[in-house]
Amino acid sequence: MFVTACGSAAPAAEPTKAPEVVAEPTAVPEPTAAPEEPAEVKPVVIVWLPNESGGDLEAARDAIGAMVTETLGRPVEHKLTTDYIIAVEALANDNGDLAFYGAQAYIEAKNKNNAIVPLMITSGASGTAKDALYHAWFAVNKGEEAAYQKDGVYSIENIAGKRFSFVSNSSTSGFKVPANKIVTTFSAQDKWKELVADDLLEGGPDSLFSDVQFGGSHQGSAVNLISGKSDVAVFCDTCVENYTALSEGEPNKVGSTYKVIDKAAEPFDKFPGKEFVL
Q1: 166 shares a domain with 82
Q2: Can you tell me the distance from the alpha carbon of 269 to that of 242, in angstroms, rounded to the nearest whole number?
Q3: Using one digit for the tens of pLDDT, what is the confidence trace for 122-144?
Q4: Mutual orientation of helices 84-92 and 103-112 as an angle, nearest 10°?
């Protein structure tokens, strides 16, 4: 910019230099905070009983897990177990979020942690609760069934003194229901009138059974039978349906025969064709 003035004549002014243009200082932007890392999404832990922890049921577990993830937007972690007590303690001690339990396991977990509540139940073939049921089987090896008949009718009265296999004392169909049937039957006899369910946990000369074993799962109890470790075993029908097939009689009827299918998954893979009678 040039400055001029008005007045009398005067010597010519010396040319002036153009003013220097000085850039105004610019503010240095304040450093911005780095974006926060997204919070880690905690997985939903589903606890499975030993019966549903086998490799042959992996696809079913994954399908259920996928539905949970789709609904909640969270990944799923499957907690597999080899013992009922471990499965019960996991949910009771907040080491799991969901569990697939039978009645007895639920009651035991609920008694330990009152925050545990039922979420849903399985349905039957009709899609309703009317046929949502399963059966607790007493089974003996094929060829030995005649020893468990009384006047030509099958009876559990002849199981006294035998080697017996349960699933777990935390199992509904693998202990609670059959134990109730055994106690009801034998407590009517003078010799066993004081019999209670806890007396069935161990075998011996003064016990109802000569030996008592626990399979840890329904599959394990069935294998105790067909492998010859026990004379009689209890387990539920749905837990062994992937490994066995009806070979004689009607489904879930006393006197019917089932056999282990060919190429059955563990732990039945060593016993193809082995038969047992209800």
Answers
A1: no
A2: 12
A3: 898 899 999 999 999 999 999 99
A4: 40
